Amino acid sequence: MSGDLRFARVGTSLGPMLLAATPVGVAALSRDAGLAAFLAGLQRRFPASEPLPDAPGLRGQAAWLRAYVAGGRRELPSVDLAGLTAWDSRVYEAVRAIPYGGTATYGEVASAVGSPGAARAVGGSLSRCPLFPAVPCHRVVMAGDGFSGWGDGDIDVKRRLLDMERGR
User: Fold this and answer.
1) Any idea which architecture 86-165 has in CATH?
2) How far apart are CA 73 and CA 66, in angstroms?
3) C-alpha to C-alpha distance for 24 and 27, rounded to whole angstroms
4) Which of 137, 157, 161, 162 is catalytic?
5) 8 Å CB contact between 17 and 7
6) What are phi and psi of 67, to 5 degrees?
7) Contact between 33 and 41 (Cβ < 8 Å)
8) Is 129 a catalytic residue?
9) 3-class SS letters over the chain
10) Structure confidence by residue, pLDDT tens digits, 13-52
11) Is residue 142 exposed (0-12), middle (13-18) or buried (19+ Cβ within 10 Å)?
């Protein structure tokens, strides 16, 4: 539906981010994609909608994003998983269930979605997650609490957000 998909650039303590939302919830977030790549990704997921710029209409989601990455919010916003694979949607929902300040291994997430042994597939899903940090990919670690990067982030951001969530 044209007009139901809005986007804006938001300044955060992680640097500028792009945010898109539908009436269902946050549809996409990106730290490093250029606007053209961000909009192309939205068009693939929401082919019936034309993304429209609307910073005023996204004030609530933008405020959540700024506060969350600065350590001022614990809850996650509603998300719109339309256009994602069933696998990715299951993985992202499992990751959203990891408590604030907690972690789970890739293998634990795989087991949570009913696919023990699919840790690498979980890693692949997180590497292409278009919803970080509304899907808190930083809470997923290697076995033994080891750190690895993921698609829209890096190890320093992962550590920074986990330290912030843990009050360090």
Assistant:
1) Orthogonal Bundle (1.10)
2) 9
3) 8
4) 137
5) no
6) -65, -40
7) yes
8) no
9) CCCCCEEEEEEECCEEEEEEECCCCEEEEECCCCHHHHHHHHHHHCCCCCCEECCHHHHHHHHHHHHHHCCCCCCCCCECCCCCCHHHHHHHHHHHCCCCCCCEEHHHHHHHCCCCCCHHHHHHHHHCCCCCCCCCHHHEEECCCECCCCCCCCHHHHHHHHHHHCCC
10) 989 999 999 999 999 999 876 899 999 999 999 999 989 9
11) middle
Rounded to an integer, what distance in angstroms lies between the CA atom of residue 108 and that of residue 42? 30
Domain boundaries of the chain, sorted by first residue: 6-69, 86-165
Count of all residues that appear for the chain in the document = 168
CA pair distance 149, 140, nearest whole angstrom: 10
Grade residue 2 by pLDDT with cuts at 50, 70 and 90.
Answer: very low
**Strand ranges of the sheet holding 26-30, from the earlier edge strand across to the other edge:** 26-30, 15-21, 6-12, 52-53
Pair of tokens at residue 54 = 């609307």
- 37-51, 111-125, 152-166: least confidently modelled range: 152-166
pTM (two decimals): 0.91
Tokens of 130: 């278009």
